[in-house]
Design brief:
Distance between the termini: 66 Å
Order of helices and strands: EEHHEHHEHEHHH
Radius of gyration: 18 Å
Largest sheet: 5 strands, mixed
Number of strands: 5
CATH class: Alpha Beta
CATH topology: Nucleotidyltransferase, domain 5
Shape: globular
Number of helices: 8
CATH superfamily: Ribonuclease H-like superfamily/Ribonuclease H
Strand content: 15-25%
CATH architecture: 2-Layer Sandwich
Structural class: alpha/beta
Number of domains: 1
């Protein structure tokens, strides 16, 4: 019996650093064909939060070598600007990034049919999907999906998660070298991070001053 091969590209988008108080937000997009998806399965590509650092970086590098990918990076100043604009918000900034990534993909793969899945950051995944569809100009809403915890449900989204997390951690390590300080992971649950935010210059452009952690 012959089985049809799915010729569509699978597009996945995820982020890293959304909730941190120090450092950037990185949003990544990956496009994968059928062979790539089999490779994802064979190599157990999964949510970056459960992959150890060295393995995560190795897998991210391998994904970059075989798949089309793109990233958008937003540093704290731009994030604070979006958060303080109640008509925009952090969700709006992430929506802008995802829409731009989808347009970048379409520009380079105009002739390929694709299905896209994004990790929805808002409470209502459907509402986010509707806004993303309009903002991105994606050709068919039936082939655009938004789900909560999509990085745990889809391996192409997980591949994007690995690239986003690897890039953010690279930038955090670079910042630590430049400052000569180990401020922890950059998230508010980390005491080393909270202590560093308390004593660092109040105009430091690597801190998200719109976060409650930074205002205390």
């Amino acid at each position: 019996m012959l089985y049809a091969v799915d010729m569509r590209l699978s597009v996945g988008i995820d982020e890293a650093g959304r909730g941190c108080v120090i450092g950037p937000l990185v949003v990544a997009c990956v496009a994968a064909d059928e062979a790539d998806r089999r490779w994802f399965w064979k190599n157990n590509i999964r949510d970056s939060k459960i992959v150890p650092g060295p393995q995560r970086d190795k897998l991210a590098g391998m994904i970059k070598e075989r798949c089309w990918f793109q990233t958008k990076i937003y540093f704290p100043t731009a994030i604070d600007e979006a958060v303080r604009d109640r008509s925009r918000t952090l969700n709006g900034l992430e929506l802008e990034a995802m829409a731009e990534l989808l347009r970048d993909f379409m520009d380079e793969h105009a002739e390929r049919e694709a299905v896209a899945l994004v990790d929805a950051p808002s409470i209502s995944a459907q509402h986010y999907l509707e806004k993303l569809y309009v903002a991105s100009g994606w050709p068919d809403m039936e082939r655009l999906k938004a789900k909560h915890e999509a990085d745990k449900k889809d391996r192409t989204v997980a591949a994007a998660s690995l690239i986003a997390k690897s890039e953010r951690e690279r930038l955090i390590a670079k910042l630590k070298r430049e400052l000569g300080v180990d401020f922890g992971c950059g998230y508010a649950h980390d005491e080393a991070t909270r202590e560093f935010v308390r004593v660092c210059p109040r105009d430091a452009d690597y801190v998200r001053w719109s976060w409650k952690t930074a205002q205390g």
